Amino acid sequence: MDLQWFAAGAGAVALLFIFYHFIRVLLNILGPYVFSQPIDLKKKAGAPWAVVTGATDGIGKSYSFELARRGFNIYLVSRTQSKLEQTKKEILQQYSNVEVRFATYDFTNPSPADYQKLLDKLNEVNIGILINNVGMFFEYPDVLHEIQGGIETLANVAVVNILPPTLLSAGILPQMVSRKAGIIVNIGSAAGAVPMAKWSVYSASKKYISWLTATLRKEYGHQGIIFQTITPLMVATKMAGSPDTSFFCPTSDAFAKSALNTIGNSSDTTGYITHQLEYEMMNLMPEFIIDKAVIRSSAKLREAALAKKEEKLLS
């Protein structure tokens, strides 16, 4: 009899465990994207300016346009002045009611002194939102010692993916703390969810972003500042190899609009409902299955990159 009661109790616990995880997964997928209404970003930001790094291409550019559409002044930060000037022009053509400034910075430069000069410029305005978007990937995935570009590429990927969210957050937080309002969004990647073979430093650096943001949330969340990690999967951008758009691969514009709507409703999410579906499915899979899928996709990415490189040489 005791054994039967034990078996029944263990079965009930197992069912409750499965039910709990089912509800959690369902809420992760539907909560920020279906059930929740977007918050008032201007009220939560507490200031009229939004700073976006990596702002002249892909997700960063789309965040800049979407924030301008919502009435924020935009401070663009990127490496190439001509691209910054063009992006500023394009934003003002569509949204003449906002102000746009820009600052050039090569994020492969780790100099604290140069970061301080950048921060001095940025802190001339009242920053309500900081989008730490700038990032860097390899030319194609490979094992660590054979990464194209060698240790210089490895160093650049580590520096670009780790330092900007760390130092820019540290330099802009004081004004957010003083008014007890502000939003910091750090763009990570689903590549940081599990250790990914042949993605080495990129995967590890994206895990750092999630960990850093979670830590900052504990340090400053009680002061009225929102911290969010966005961990996208495939978005149709140049950095991703310009893939065709699909159900699981949105345009950067669609992604940015969706991701901005999740601020305040989810502290750590992919930013797009179909990405969240993929992410939750990935978390349910045994790691060895994910490893096999990563190896296959990495081989395809490497093959495509080398074919494109050869095509350029022949043209």
From TrEMBL:
Pfam families: adh_short (PF00106). GO terms for cellular component: endoplasmic reticulum. Keywords: Lipid biosynthesis, Lipid metabolism, Membrane, NADP, Oxidoreductase, Steroid biosynthesis, Transmembrane, Transmembrane helix. GO terms for molecular function: oxidoreductase activity. The chain crosses the membrane at residues 6-27. InterPro entries: NAD(P)-bd_dom_sf (IPR036291), Sc_DH/Rdtase_CS (IPR020904), SDR_fam (IPR002347). PROSITE patterns: ADH_SHORT. One of its GO terms (biological process) is steroid biosynthetic process. Belongs to the short-chain dehydrogenases/reductases (SDR) family. 17-beta-HSD 3 subfamily. This is Uncharacterized protein. It comes from Caenorhabditis remanei (Caenorhabditis vulgaris).
